[in-house]
Every structure is written in structure tokens, then in C-alpha cells.
Design brief:
234 residues; alpha/beta; 12% strand
């Protein structure tokens, strides 16, 4: 896999190690709060697939226009495009440690990531929070917003559980799932999160840029922003 540091020509120094952690949790579980704390404490770069899609949709590119139109029509953007945006952000960063927030949302996301990036996450952090607590938090922080009524929130919970549970089970079988109780106050949750990431710092990573895979030429093409828009067709 090509690595995180690159020059403007897309070249990467050999031997650079990458650490990738997925952060998963239902709406209102506190993922964003914990990611901010992890960034501050451990120096990770926080990447959100949703944020990257919205940024790309604002760009004056063919792909950005396509994404904007799909989002406007309420259609899903293909998993390959999402993964390539994540990869582009990784390659554009000077860091070698990444939190990928709210991803993979489903098995199609996961399979696209494995096909394109092909780096196992160090682990998957699951912020495990009850429906009742997540519902209470969302209603409290969004009072007066029509798009966060009880019915809509509960539908989001159902979608999360149906789509993401197979992903959670997959990584649990691999021994990569790290579960923390998200029902508590954020600082209490972070005490458990800190212990997990402290172990990661002592273990190091087994993935090196020197172990470049056959997709390197495609990665360099990607770094130039030359996406194949046809890949977004489903």
C-alpha cells in the first residue's frame, strides 16, 4: 500500500508505516466527541466519509457535480468513490495515523475498502450506546429541528443496526473489535478509549509503504485528482 506522506508529484518515501482505525457507533453515540479527544491526545488525523463527500460535492469538478446530484436526488454514492476519497485524503496528509469515522457503514463499504486500500485496520473502535440514550442526546441537542423527530431518529437507528451489525460481527471474528460503553459521560468513555490507544502506541504497525502493492500506479493517478467518473455508476 502506498503511504500517507507524499510530495506534490504523488511520490511517497519508502518505509513509512500507516495506522488506520475505524470508529463506529450509532447516531448520538458520541463518535465525534471521542474522535476529537483522540486527535488531541494521540495525534491522529480524523477523516469522515460524509465530510469528504460534502467537500467534493462543492468542488468544481465533474465528479463533484455527479456527487452533488446524487445527494440532491437522495441516491447513494458508490462505495468505490467513497473509498477513493478517503484514500486521496490519506495520501494528501503528512500524517501516518488515521481515524476513519462512521466507516464502513455496511458490508459493501468494507469490501470496497479491502479491494482498493487493502490495509487491515489496527482495530475497530465501537462506541456502544443504548437506543434510549442516543435518542435522548439527539433530541436534547437538536430541539426544534424537524429532521430529528423521534420517528426519524428511530428509523436511523434501525438502518444503522441492520447495515452495520454485519461489519461489527466481521471484525469481532477477526479479533479486531474494541468495544467501549458510550452511555457514560464523554470523559469517562475516553478513559477506556485512552487505554486502548495506549496499547496501540506500544505495538506499532505491520504495514509499510515499502510493501507497495500492484495498484501504486493507480494511486499516483488518483493523487492527481483524475478520478474515473464511470466508477460511480451502479
Amino acid at each position: 500500500m502506498a503511504g500517507a506522506n507524499k510530495g506534490y508529484d504523488g511520490s511517497m518515501p519508502p518505509g513509512k508505516k500507516l495506522k488506520i482505525v475505524f470508529v463506529i457507533g450509532g447516531p448520538g453515540s458520541g463518535k465525534g466527541t471521542q474522535c476529537s479527544k483522540i486527535v488531541n491526545q494521540f495525534g491522529f488525523t480524523h477523516l469522515s466519509a460524509g465530510d469528504l463527500l460534502r467537500q467534493e460535492a462543492k468542488s468544481n469538478t465533474e465528479q463533484g457535480t455527479m456527487i452533488k446530484n446524487l445527494m440532491h436526488e437522495g441516491k447513494l454514492v458508490s462505495s468505490e468513490i467513497i473509498v477513493r476519497l478517503l484514500l486521496k485524503a490519506i495520501l494528501a496528509s503528512g500524517n501516518d495515523k488515521f481515524l476513519i469515522d462512521g466507516f464502513p457503514r455496511n458490508e459493501v463499504n468494507r469490501q470496497a475498502y479491502e479491494k482498493i486500500v487493502n490495509i487491515d485496520p489496527e482495530f475497530v473502535l465501537l462506541i456502544d450506546c443504548s437506543r434510549e440514550e442516543m435518542e435522548r442526546r439527539i433530541l436534547h441537542r437538536n430541539q426544534g429541528r424537524d429532521d430529528d423527530n423521534v420517528e426519524t431518529i428511530r428509523r436511523r437507528f434501525e438502518v444503522f443496526q441492520e447495515s452495520t451489525l454485519p461489519v461489527i460481527q466481521h471484525y469481532e471474528k477477526m479479533g479486531k473489535l474494541r468495544r467501549v460503553d458510550g452511555n457514560r459521560q464523554p470523559d469517562m468513555v475516553f478513559e477506556d478509549v485512552k487505554a486502548i490507544f495506549a496499547q496501540l502506541n506500544t505495538q506499532g504497525s505491520n504495514i509499510s509503504i515499502a510493501q507497495t502493492n500492484p495498484f501504486k500506479r493507480w494511486f499516483l493517478h488518483l493523487c492527481c485528482g483524475c478520478f474515473d467518473v464511470q466508477d460511480g455508476r451502479n
